[in-house]
Amino acid sequence: MADMDQPRHDDPQHVAELRLALRQARFENSLLREANSHLVQATVTAQTLQDEAEAANRRQNEFLAMLAHELRNPLAPISMAAAMLERMPDMTPELSALRSVISRQTGHMARLLDDLLDAARISSGRITLDVAPVTLADVIERAVETVQPRIADSGQRLDVRVTAPQLTLNGDRVRLMQVFSNLLANASKYTQDGGRIVLEAGAGPAGVQVTVSDNGTGIAADVLPHIFDLFTQGPRSLARSEGGLGVGLNVVRNLVTMHGGTVHAQSGGPGHGSRFTVELPAGDPMPAAPEQDAAMAPHASCRVLLIEDNVDVCDTLKGFLMLDAHDVIAAYDGNAGLALAQEGGFDVLICDIGLPGIDGLQVIRRLRAGGDRVFAVALSGYSQPQDRAKALAAGFDEYLVKPVRPDSLLELIDSEPCRSRRSPRA
C-alpha cells in the first residue's frame, strides 16, 4: 500500500515549490557568475593600473636621466672654462670675481641635478649604499667644504663644532656628506645675508648626533610636519631669490633612514630660525691606515687622447689639460678616436660614452680586445649606477660624471693606478 505521506510528483503544490527552488538556484548562480566576472575584471584592472604605474615610473626615471645628461653637457665646458680662467696669468680682481660666480653657480646647478635624480632613484628603490667605516670629522669636513663658497658668498657666518672627531659611522661616505651638505645648503638658503649657521657634531643618544641650526626665516607650524616631503618648500621673500626644487630635505630623510638613523626639524616659527637634528648609530673602529714608505713621485706630463663629440666640452677640456703641461690629442667621434687610440703611444684615454659612429663602450671594448692597457676614463652626463657599472664592465678604469671637478681629473691622471700603466719614454 502506497505511503499516504509521500508527496506525489503530480502534486501542484510540490511542483510549484520545485519550480521556485529551481528559479532561486538559477538566480543565485547568475549572481555568482556576475560576482566572478566582476572579480576577474577587478583583477585585470588592478594589474593594468600597476603596469601603467610601473611604466610611468620607468618613463619618469628615463626622462630625469636624459634631462640630467642634457643639462650636464653645457655645464661641463662652463665649469672647465672657469677652471682655465683661474690658471690664467695676470688675473684681475674683477675677472677673478666673475670666475668665482661661474664656478659657484655651475656647482649649484650640478647639486640640483644630483638631488633630483637621487629623489627619483630613492623612490623607486634603485639606490644602494657603499658602506664602510668613516670618521665623523672627515664627513663633516667634506660637507662644509662643499657648501662653504655659497655661505661665504652670502656673507654668512658658519660655526663648526665637532666635539668627538674620533667617532666613526658605518655608512656611505659620499651619501653622508650629501646629507650634511644638503642641510647646510638649506640653512644658507633660508638665512638672510650676514646670518649665522651653526653645525654641532658629537656623541648622542643613538651614538652620533649632528645638528644644523640657523637664525633665518624659520618654519611655519603648518609646514613643519611636511618639511621632509618631496617638493615641499618653505616661503621665501623676494629678497632671497635663490630657487630650489624642494627635494633636498626629502633626500636627507631617505638617506638617513637608509643608514638606520632619524632626522627631525624644529622651529619657533617664522623669523625664529630652524634646527635640524640627525641621529645615527656609531660605527666600527677605523682600520689602521697604511704607512707611506716612499714620497709621492713628482708630477709628470703624459700623452692624453680625448674623445668627445661636444666641441665646447672637448676644446675646453683639452685646453685645461694642456695648461697642466699634458700633451693632448682630440677626436670628435668614436671611429676617429678608436683609430688614433689603436696607433698607440697614449698614457691616458678620456672618452665620452655617447659618441657618433661608435659609442665609448665599443671603443674601449675593441681596445681591450686588442690588448691595449691604456688607463681609460669614461666621461659622461649619465649618473645612474647601472651606467657606471656598464662602463667599468666594458673596460674603463674610472667613470666620471659631467661636470667633472677639474682638480679631481688632474689628481686622477696623476694617481698611482694611472702612473703604473704608463710605458717608459724612450
UniProtKB/TrEMBL annotation:
Compartment(s) of residence: Cell inner membrane
Residues annotated with 4-aspartylphosphate modification: D352
Superkingdom field: Bacteria
Record-linked SUPFAM superfamilies: ATPase domain of HSP90 chaperone/DNA topoisomerase II/histidine kinase, CheY-like, Homodimeric domain of signal transducing histidine kinase
Coiled-coil stretches: 32-59
Enzyme Commission numbers on file: 2.7.13.3
Topological type in the membrane: Multi-pass membrane protein
Reaction(s) catalysed by this chain's protein: ATP + protein L-histidine = ADP + protein N-phospho-L-histidine
Keyword Kinase: yes
Listed GO CC annotations: plasma membrane
SMART domains: HATPase_c, HisKA, REC
Keywords annotated in UniProt: Coiled coil, Kinase, Phosphoprotein, Transferase
Keyword field contains Protein transport: no
Protein name: histidine kinase
Organism from which the protein derives: Pseudoduganella lutea
